[in-house]
TrEMBL record:
Record-annotated Putative plant transposon protein domain positions: 24-147
Organism: Cephalotus follicularis
Protein name according to UniProt: Putative plant transposon protein domain-containing protein
């Protein structure tokens, strides 16, 4: 993987995660071939601030080389080519609550050889299949980068 560009011809015949990304309409995020400048990107993220209050629509602000950049939810949705449907909050270490869905359904897919696995366990990526590990790698390094270690399943 060079930067944010995956060789789909190589991967699609070997790994099923490419079709998963296609089904989720995420292929454009792993096929960015435009040049980018690491120092400017770093400056953008260093100066990035949430400028909206809790009762307002989500908005970010940053400065790069003296240029002020303002991004609200509508602008971000437009950049990412996703619909602007409102704010979703992601809580670390908490399973989403969806009617008719139980976390054990997902765990049985991710860990088919471990019937004793349950949502309250500390889940590790080193027991995932290759496809699921690659998908996890893309999510934590490309789509939702975080600080710290990456071996814990999130």
């Amino acid at each position: 993987m060079g930067g944010r560009n995956i060789d789909l011809a190589l991967c699609s015949s070997e790994f099923s995660f490419v079709s998963w990304l296609e089904d989720l309409h995420l292929l454009p995020l792993v096929q960015i071939q435009d040049p980018f400048y690491i120092k400017l990107v770093k400056e953008f993220y260093t100066n990035l601030r949430i400028v909206s209050s809790p009762n307002e629509e989500f908005a970010l602000s940053s400065t790069v080389k003296g240029q002020h950049i303002f991004l609200d939810a509508r602008i971000l949705a437009s950049i990412l080519h996703i619909p602007h449907t409102g704010l979703y909050i992601f809580e670390h270490k908490k399973w989403l609550e969806v009617e008719g869905f139980h976390p054990n359904q997902i765990l049985s897919i991710l860990y088919p050889n471990d019937p004793n696995i349950h949502p309250n366990m500390a889940l590790s990526t080193n027991r995932l299949s290759v496809d699921h590990r690659l998908l996890h790698h893309l999510i934590v390094h490309q789509f939702l980068p975080t600080g710290g270690g990456y071996t814990k399943l999130s």
